[in-house]
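*** Query protein ***
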Amino acid sequence: MIDLGAARKNPAKARAALSSRNPKNGLLFDELLKLDEVHRALLNEVEEMRAKRNASSQAIGKAMAAKDAATTDKLKAEVSELKTRMTEKESLLSESEKTIKSAAMVIPNLPHESVPVGKDETENPVVRTAGEARKFEFKPLDHQTVAEKLGALDMKTGVKLAGSRFALWQGPGAKLIRALGNFLLDRHSMNGYLEVHPPYLALPEILEGTSQLPKFEADMYKTVNIEGDKTSTLYLISTSEIVLTNMVREEILAAERLPMKLTALTACFRQEAGTYGKDVRGVIRNHQFDKVELVWITKPEESLAALEQLTKDAAATLEALELPHRVIHLCTGDMGFASQKTYDIEVWMPSENKYREISSCSDCSDFQARRMAARFRRDAKASAELVHTLNGSGVAVGRLAAAILENNQQADGSVVIPRALVPYFGAERIAVP
């Protein structure tokens, strides 16, 4: 959640920043401020009543010590009446807290001042480009066609088993997915990331902590866990960012543990709500896919520098695999809900003659940490402070396989395996059967 206390000090600045993402956010912020004003007035009233109760309790003690029965009875009656009114006000205060939390939950993070203002993806500036797009002597095929000719991908069977937007990799395709996962994990582990193998299911409060709930519930797969006569709701993770980041939930970390760098290879599950008709071919937008995730937990003053390094770590995997790519800086109108600053990495796809997103690297500042109550202490005597959280794809495995298939396809239908991947794949190319 946003820092309401800080936003209250300069509401015009916060409103302008939020409106630069979407004008509706400014209206939501104004509604939150109104709720907050009512809440603080109610809180002051309750605190005054509590102070009066405490003072009256002390007065009762003195009256009783003085054996002043009349005053004692009068004060006790006043305290009794006060407690009744307090109970009512405290109930209203509790409901007000819930209302404010619900209102705050749908307001995105404030963009950092270094983020370019823009309305959508058409206004995202390119930060850097690496590698040159290959010039083909034939018309390059899309990755699904290439993979199906190699016997590496069977989309029809995927649909038969689970419905639309599910892929079935097989033979050399399944081997390629496995090789890429191991390659990516090894690279990141050697760069100081702690490898984690987390649960694929998470409790609602865990998704709330990283902002998937309530904003993106339509994108989540939900299930019910039954243990005896008890049931609980669990969600399939849409990214391992959810579980990795929440590892520090409700913790107070020692400063020496920061930064924490975590990585995991997991399956990810997304409903892809609102994308009907988009990317229906191939594996660019599936309901289930593998992804290697990178997560940093840092001190506040270190998060922006950490974002630069995290982005370099993700992009380095594409450089190692000799894939043309570029890094773009997302403008305010195209940023993710929890992010204060985001870089997207896009890989070149020859069949489309354009770049496609393969990684998104975000600095979420203390937005997620405030929801998770994730803090650190600079020394034993210091007050606890909120950490900053960052995440990025390092990278999406299915899209990476698609990029290799398209960029490395040959005229005879075979696909050359990138040199860095050969030790993992065990061969220099995938031949046509």
